[in-house]
Amino acid sequence: MHPRLDFSFFEIDLYSALVGLGMLAGLLSAYLYLRLCSRRASAAGTFLDGVLLLLAGGWVGARAYHVLMNWEYYQARPEEIAQVGLGGLGIRGAFVVGVVLAAGYTRWRRISFGHVADAAAIGLSVGQAIGWAGALAHGANYGIVSSSQFAVELPNLYGLVEPRFPVQHLEFALFALLFFALVGLAARRRAPGLLFLGYLLIASLANVLLGFQRGDETAYLGAVRLDQIVDLALGLSAASALAWRRLNARQAIARARVAL
Question: What pLDDT does residue 234 have?
Fold first, then answer.
């Protein structure tokens, strides 16, 4: 049985409570960052409108991603595509749609996309850290059965306890450390967008590697999880963007030296 919190007047799954807490912590962290670097982006109306847009669009993207990743199932049961009560959301779909919507929203509002993206990176990192703690409590996103010395007796989503690779522990540690690293870099006033690209690169490539140790059910392409392919594409995109920024910076320095 999955752990629940009993508040006398209502009960809630610990997993749901931690996911909700992660969302609130993420939004608060993002808002506080924007308060420090962009008063215009942190204006109440601008921030709340953006949050509502991203939540709605992200939800649609998350559902669409899940359906696409399990298309063989939903192709035979099209009536279940809109039945979200049955479960099925994918954070990668929410992320991709969220980036597109954020780019359009910041352009419309004439605010810095880089600052908003950096705020999102900080919020996502703390939100995902708490979310992975929830996954551990719920048995979700569990690791493969392993005889490794690092294996821990853990349940899967169905309550079956076996020695498993501690994916949830490592993901929690990854995003917690990433959050503190991003906060530290934010205090140094890095160029807008750099925190976001760093977050995307580290999180995506780490998820590619840890994906080989996950035992939960998902769609595969050969021996590779489809979400690993998506993560690899996101990570390479971040690496390319960082390389492009570095090249532009070097060219700008070279032009400045020539001008002198």
Answer: 97
- Rounded to an integer, what distance in angstroms lies between the CA atom of residue 172 and that of residue 174? 5
- Over residues 102-131, the mean pLDDT reads 95
Residue 157 dihedral angles phi and psi, to the nearest 5°: -65, -20
Strand partners, 163: 153
With DSSP H G I counted as helix, E B as strand and the rest as coil, what are the percentages for the chain, rounded to 5? 70, 10, 25
Domain span at residue 157 reads 112-260
Residue 139 and residue 235 in one domain:
yes
Is 87 part of a structural domain of the chain?
yes
100 and 134 co-located in one domain? no
Same domain? 139 vs 252: yes
From 74, 93, 111, give the residue that closes a domain: 111
Residue 257 has pLDDT above 80, yes or no: no
Q: What is the pLDDT of residue 74?
A: 85
Q: Which amino acid is at 6?
A: D
φ, ψ of residue 153 to 5 degrees: the values are: -70, 110
Confidence of residue 1 (pLDDT cuts 50, 70, 90): low
Which of 56, 84, 111 is where one domain is finished?
111
Provide the angle, in degrees to the nearest 10, between the axes of the packed helices 167-186 and 113-138: 150
Residue 159's identity, in one-letter code, is G
What value, to the nearest 5°, has the Cα angle with vertex 15 and ends 14 and 21?
A: 85
- In this predicted structure, which of 135-149, 164-178, 243-257 has the lowest mean pLDDT? 243-257
What is the structure's pLDDT at 53?
Answer: 95
Q: pTM here?
A: 0.90
Residues 152 and 61 both lie in one domain: no
d(CA 107, CA 113) in angstroms, rounded, equals 8
Strands (E), 81-221: 152-155, 161-164, 220-221
pLDDT band at 117 (very low <50, low <70, confident <90, very high): very high
